[in-house]
Amino acid sequence: MDFLKKNFSGLLLCFVIAVPAWMLGKMFPVVGGAVISIIAGMIITMFCKDKGKAAPGIKWTSKYILQAAVVLLGFGMNLGVIFETGKQSLPIIICTITTSLVIAWICRKALKVSANSAILVGVGSSICGGSAIAATAPVIEADDNEVAQAISVIFFFNVLAAIFFPILGNAIGFDTTHGDAFGIFAGTAINDTSSVTAAAATWDSMWNLGSETLNKAVTVKLTRTLAIIPITLVLSIIRAKSAAKEGRKSAEFSLKRAFPMFILYFIIAAVITTVCVNMGVEASVFGPLKQLSKFFIVMAMAAIGLNSNIVHLIKTGGKPLIVGASCWAGITIVSLIMQHLMNIW
């Protein structure tokens, strides 16, 4: 009861924002419900800075609902299927993720961007957009402004990719008789699932390929999403060691404390899905949990928007945008080079 008294108002506010944002996201998948939700929260905050009784619930939502969303995301992962169908794209995925993280690190040094912002943009660009940011933010203790800024940067390049990548694929000579080349390109070079699916579906429509490209792109994207696990684990270990070096007693390094429990639950969810599917359970059984995961992300983004100062974001957004552009360009170029070297196109 004490929990409800303290957090109900904030939870309800985030839910009320998330429902229409979710519906609009279905209508405009290139934008997505998460972006609509975070923008709505920012607009509300511009006119109502004092959240009053809703403040604790908003803070709780931005942290714990976000973590719950990542856990539920695991139910969309059949490890066996992803391994079999993702082997071809794995070298490309490893190279693009490495490229993005290295570029983010260089930009952080060169542009003097905050470490958290550089990490969030780098991870969001290289792995899976909002989901990767959602998983990484609590591990590195990023604040809501940093998360909102990273989401905004990712969104901008998502839209560009969804619009221009099919045009680019045609211009550089991807095979139009099947969807393999463009599917791998979309799955490795576009950061958010909504834009991956939008670009792949556009390619299918352009060349009457049914859902061939879409299936390939989504499979590659799911394989890429698994990188959330090692990336967040490494970041949590680095974070704990850094805190221990500063002499804070409570921050002394231990693997148990360094490992984010919600990532463990994410792995367990993926294992459950894999075992059940191998036993004959239809993958569609887990569909509602995947949908709930996506809704929780939209709800958490509402909370993050409510806690964000949009004026401050505008004033400080230039450098993160440069980081995002650099990561996006690097990922795109490396993906194309790797596919060419592997004779995919």
What proportion of the residues form beta strands (DSSP E)?
under 5%
SSE order: HHHHHHHHHHHHHHHHH
**Rg, Cα atoms, Å:** 20 Å
Alpha-beta content class:
mainly alpha
List the main descriptive attributes of the protein structure presented here:
single chain; mainly alpha; 345 residues
What this model shows, in words?
The protein is mainly alpha-helical and 345 residues long. It contains 17 helices and no strands. The protein has helices at 2-27, 33-47, 55-73, 79-86, 90-111, 115-128, 130-140, 144-171, 180-189, 193-207, 212-225, 228-245, 255-258, 261-278, 287-306, 310-316, 318-341. The longest helix has 28 residues, at 144-171. It is globular, with a radius of gyration of 20 Å. The model is unreliable at 249-254 (pLDDT under 50).
Task: Write a brief caption for the model.
The chain is mostly helical. Helix content is 79%, strand content 0%.
Fold blueprint:
Layout: H1 2-27, H2 33-47, H3 55-73, H4 79-86, H5 90-111, H6 115-128, H7 130-140, H8 144-171, H9 180-189, H10 193-207, H11 212-225, H12 228-245, H13 255-258, H14 261-278, H15 287-306, H16 310-316, H17 318-341
Helix pairs in contact: 1-2, 1-3, 1-15, 2-15, 3-7, 3-14, 3-15, 4-11, 5-6, 5-17, 6-7, 6-8, 6-17, 7-8, 7-12, 8-10, 8-17, 9-10, 9-11, 9-17, 10-11
